[in-house]
Specification:
4 copies of one chain form a homotetramer. By secondary structure, chain A is α+β, with helices and mostly antiparallel strands. Chain A has helices at residues 16-30, 50-69, 80-84, 108-122, 132-158, 223-231, 243-252, 289-298, 306-317; strands spanning 181-184, 187-191, 207-211, 214-217, 260-263, 266-271, 274-277, 352-358, 384-388, 404-406, 415-416, 420-422. The first copy, chain A, has a 4-stranded mixed β-sheet. In chain A, strands 1-4-12 form a 3-stranded antiparallel β-sheet, covered by helices on one side. A 3-stranded antiparallel β-sheet of chain A has the order 5-6-7, with no helix packed on it. Chain A is globular and about 65 Å long. Chains A, B, C, D: Residues 317-342 are annotated as: Disordered.
């Protein structure tokens, strides 16, 4: 999901001002372990420097709120909006995406000063109902960038042969658990956001979809199961793969999920805590759509559609937009801690779950007007929908109607796999 | 649609043997105007040499029928199967796709001899009911390659600054016609092939889809209308484009459909009859999905879904799989003639019509077993569905459930645009 | 040597008119075995289609002689000069080099008609002394393209898995021969053309060069010797290679000369006569400068400079510009026959010989004026000088002062290696 | 000059230990203005991060001296040698060159600690005559990296739209000065290092070269003169350019030296002091060989050979290897100051001067043995020799026999142009 712009409904019972502060503080606390240099580097075009995320989210507040609505607001720096706009064509030129990693200036500390400057200016208008919609959107936008910041810096640190850890310690281990199935009889399901509370424009309008009887797995595929797939020649059998997927395998020389390494001293993988032994019972993560689809073929199952997934989520959790929508407790981000999928019970957490649904407009979908509308609709080609949430998603950010989306070759998000089958 | 393998129901009232001969003869008559060199060149990776199409369709009969079922059949040449396999991983190694244009040997005449050899060997088994299914598939497969042959050679000749014509003469002119709308009240529609007669595996299973009320244009967008889009800055306004589409525009320097040229002496475009003046009333063609989507945005309309299109087609023509399914008469291929969109009335003809539906599996879809099953399912990522037929589609080849598919940047097929809107 | 333009001194005792006809006939007789399609394909950017060579050499006569000097001459076709100009910026736009292989029209027969048309028009002016200089240049130019035609078509046919042969039969075998040395005491040598007879501008002016004592091998390195280099890990030992050469080895996966194959039934290589067993006593050929340099390092020797080579050649053959300059008889092209290095005795023949001299201007060098001057001087960066002649060089075309030049990675010419050492 | 390894003769009258300390201190003082992030980024494959230069020069001392000769020396960090080796294949694997800019760890401060650790360990052996040769080489090596550090960081800061300055202030202005000529009568010149004092292996052996009469300009081409070349269409006239140069112009869209900008408020260019107005009388710099050669063609002059340049230098300054070899005072690096070409009098200073000599081995050249020998000889293909020194060359580092070398397209060094002509 390339930097979508949005507004998470703060389903936390807090005031908007509280939610603003919680989110802004979380962003900053997550970069505490990073040096100026760590926050500057960019490992690939899909990723952005941590510093850039800090600045871009700040640019959002300045551009869409302060510049228009804060009395006598002065830009912190006249040149920075150009540097930290992302893809809003309406808001002027941007620098080439892959040059972001060359911006050693402004420094991390200067960006922090900018953040403080903007936070101060935001205070008077945070509780003004006239701006509630934009503030909500800005919070959701910043929460999305929190997840990207975490996955981007992981990818950047991974490039370093020293394997630097962003946090110390080691992840907790998961329990082994039998796979069960959530069954669904089919019929007409209501899909999409109902208009209550915040949602992105791409989650609506709510509409009816006809489903055939199906079942959805009650947990994610694990590292141990993925190892069986590898051991059975999964990455060498063209028959299991989509045509584009097989081309990708050959071009990449892919033979395991991103971040896996067959160390001499046991299987390990790269995490925010450096190189760690893989937990066989933890959900497999950092897989592409191509890999997820090939695994499902190998397992004699398939990926769910986004509608099937949402129907189960609503069955389990009602409307699914309530704060406590996943009491079973998937791993989500609660603070400045290393994100790592650990259990695999909850629908909302641990890993984003691939669906076989293309990321396309719902019936009667209309993009929002103005510059803030330039973010979801225009990505509707070539990508797939993912549902749920991951261990790097700020708790409270997701809901049953949430539609995340990525290209089928991308692996650097906390993506995972929940199987489905026909009944 | 990269060389899909299929079997068109011969909806022509002819026996399978007659249909076999009609199709094989058509292939050969289409290359009559070509020299050995014309038939050898390859202009891009998406296209294949004409000679290759002649050979590959022949390889199909030899590999899937003669080798297995013809008593004492001898391969015409032991090395050629390797050269003319396309993408059936199960059938052995292939040469790199873009090296096809370097095969000056075997010659066009040698390929013709191979065709005659195979046709002779096919005669005794053409009417054997035991092979009817494979023969039907082989005919459909060859008909698909006829369309590709025509679009590929057009692209190859276009590269030549001399602008060589494959046929002489000039296309007929179309009448101007007001745009009207086919309205649909919404509700449950039956989608997909019903199992009667031939269809590709990707057209089924038949299933129910819920539609919202909508309307589908009763003709295609014309060259004159497209010129208005250009004149209004359509190719320079990022807001109209999908994000990937805008990147494509900038990378390609796109400012008009493929084959358009602003000649000093009037607007013209490249055709199988060389450079010709564009007919303002003829449907615009050779546009990408990106262009179609941008135009629809500019026009305040949208693309239809594949389900909407099919529902209208069935409403107009009943099941739509009957031979006379489009009495209004869209332009299709009836013989060795230059294909050119001329009118724009029929749903089935002139141009393939983009839908906003991703090319994805229908509920309970299963690929066919064996090597012949390696063709439709494995392309289900990143592409869009097109409906109808084009002026280069062999008449009788298409039907309401037919799903053609291409990547959103591809332009070299006879692709066009039929608008839709919500009601 | 990318299509240099020049004029070989016809050292054959023939009149210019006779030499013109001999050369033109030779060009045409060499393409006798080729079909229109063979003559159309282009295997890489460095190579051109055979048809293109036939046309380009004809364009030369039309552009530089007939258009200016033939009374009432009419262009054979107005569009063809654009198609068949090569790199003379002064003579107008050209099509992109790698699109040459898409020109199925004009046909091979049409090009032959053009050649006849031009030959007829040339007859009256062939013996006119006023044009002798340009005619001589045109003959040399066409002789250079004969060599390129032969090496380009070899590369094109090599791409075909069928391994088509252009001529039948098999090459003669060479005798094994001990390596001896031509010694030279050093001192001042006269280098470059003396102004008698034809030479390219880059061969002069004649000037003095100081040499240190050295020796030049009296034969070329053989296939058997190269095999030892391979067996000793030559392609896997970075220490033997230039830095750019080692990068080239890794990028190409190079492990043998171009055209070598380790067939199960014995070592073979691709030739104009198809796949043939390699002759261990024949000179190794189709090696890059990088390979030649690495071999010399491995052998504890070095490449000669162009000055050393020329000094030996003059010592052996006097001025070396006489027709019989190499009585020992290196293999050169005498007619429409398969070129293949066989012996290795003569300095002038079998393979072009790499020198360690960069292709740079001699003191007081000035490019010729006008469009015909746009060919040698402008290539003076990044290339190395080769001396002698190859089995594909028209006999009479070379001389001691001749400077051939290629980039250090190129392999598709008949390049070989003659070692040198310090004394 | 891709990170050549060498040893500058400390022509400063200082002891080796003093010269070691002066050089090490200079390196560190030059990065004083840089943040950790500034020192981490890498703008292109040809450049390295400042931090990398600090580390790599330290790796040199550790690898070639301390590890072998310092009693009980302990590596500062076991993993760092892998990170900071450059291209010594013999010393083990290296990380891909363009990944250097992703090494946010170790930090700049950690590298400084490493430097201090190594400097402490070096102290006892600095004055040991047994190591004098390697210490001299290490000093020269570090001085070369000082120049690269300065040119690499300039290129990196240039990528930033903010145009950050590394130093404040503005450069001094130069005087306008008529062009004069150093004439030379030709004859035998002694070229190459005489063996007294330190020199790189590629500077020898000394040998005789025959020169024709020529003249060398007594100053460099200026910005004002270069502007005339531009105004006269120099970048749009193919006839002035080498073939590879013209391809480079078109591919790059080149229309001025690197770092030039046509600001609305007057011509300016990027410097270590940020964007500054160009001084018309200062030497033009940051030009490629292609540009230098095209300018010389336009001016009706030519580039000198390396031998001509050296002959003049020896005529002006005797052996030219004495400390005061250029009393006229070209701009060289004397401390932690912004390098900027200002005057244009001295042969040794302001800008490296292109010669038309390929970077090739001198007669009887032999690379040094062992890993330290892997640096000069292996670059001898495709590059050109530059003579003199630049404003970023540590004073005392250069000499008349010094051979710098770059590829003809490279611009990011302080390269300039001194014309020559025949007499």
């Amino acid at each position: 999901m390339p930097e979508p712009l949005t507004s998470s409904a703060p389903e936390t019972g807090q005031s908007l001002a509280q939610e603003y502060r919680r989110t802004r503080d979380l962003t900053e606390s997550l970069v505490e372990p990073l040096s100026d240099a760590d926050a500057t580097i960019q490992s690939m075009e899909d990723a952005s420097p941590a510093k850039w995320h800090l600045a871009h989210t700040t640019w959002f507040w300045e551009t869409f709120l302060l510049r228009d609505f804060a009395r006598d607001y002065t830009l912190f720096d006249d040149d920075w909006p150009f540097l930290f706009n992302s893809y809003y064509e309406a808001e002027g030129e941007r620098i080439a995406r892959f040059s972001r990693g060359l911006l050693s200036r402004p420094t991390l500390d200067e960006i922090r000063e900018w953040r403080a400057h903007v936070d101060d200016a935001m205070e008077p208008i945070l509780d003004d109902p006239a701006h509630a919609e934009l503030v909500t959107l800005g919070i959701a936008h910043e929460q999305q960038h929190i997840e990207l910041l975490l996955t981007d810096i992981k990818h950047a640190l991974f490039q370093n042969p020293l394997g630097p850890a962003m946090w110390s310690g080691a992840p907790a281990r998961a329990e082994s658990r039998e796979l069960g199935w959530h069954e669904h009889p089919g019929g007409v399901a209501l899909i999409g956001h109902d208009g209550e509370g915040f949602a992105f424009d791409n989650e609506g309008p709510r509409h009816r979809v006809l489903l055939e009887p199906f079942a959805l797995a009650d947990r994610l595929v694990t590292n141990a199961e993925w190892q069986e797939f590898i051991d059975d020649g999964g990455y060498r059998n063209a028959r299991l793969w989509l045509s584009d997927g097989w081309a990708w395998v050959k071009e990449q020389g892919a033979e395991a999920p991103l971040y896996w390494r067959s160390a001499e001293s046991g299987a390990d993988h790269f995490t925010h805590q450096g190189w760690q032994t893989r937990d066989p019972n933890a959900p497999v993560t950092h897989i592409s759509y191509f890999e997820a689809d090939a695994y499902a073929s190998w397992a004699g199952k398939r990926l769910p559609t986004e509608f099937e997934w949402e129907a189960i989520a609503r069955g389990q959790h009602g409307e699914g937009n309530a704060p406590a929508h996943d009491p079973a407790g998937g791993n989500q981000l609660d603070g400045a801690e290393p994100p790592q999928p650990a259990g695999s019970d909850g629908l909302f957490g641990d890993c984003w779950q691939f669906t076989r649904s293309g990321y396309l407009p719902y019936p009667r979908f209309q993009p929002a007007a103005g510059a803030v509308g330039e973010y979801n609709g225009k990505f509707m080609s070539g990508q797939f929908v993912l549902k749920g949430a991951s261990c790097a998603t700020v708790r409270g950010h997701s809901r049953a109607s949430y539609r995340n989306f990525f290209y089928p070759h991308q692996q650097w998000q906390f993506t995972g796999l929940r199987l489905a089958k026909d009944l």
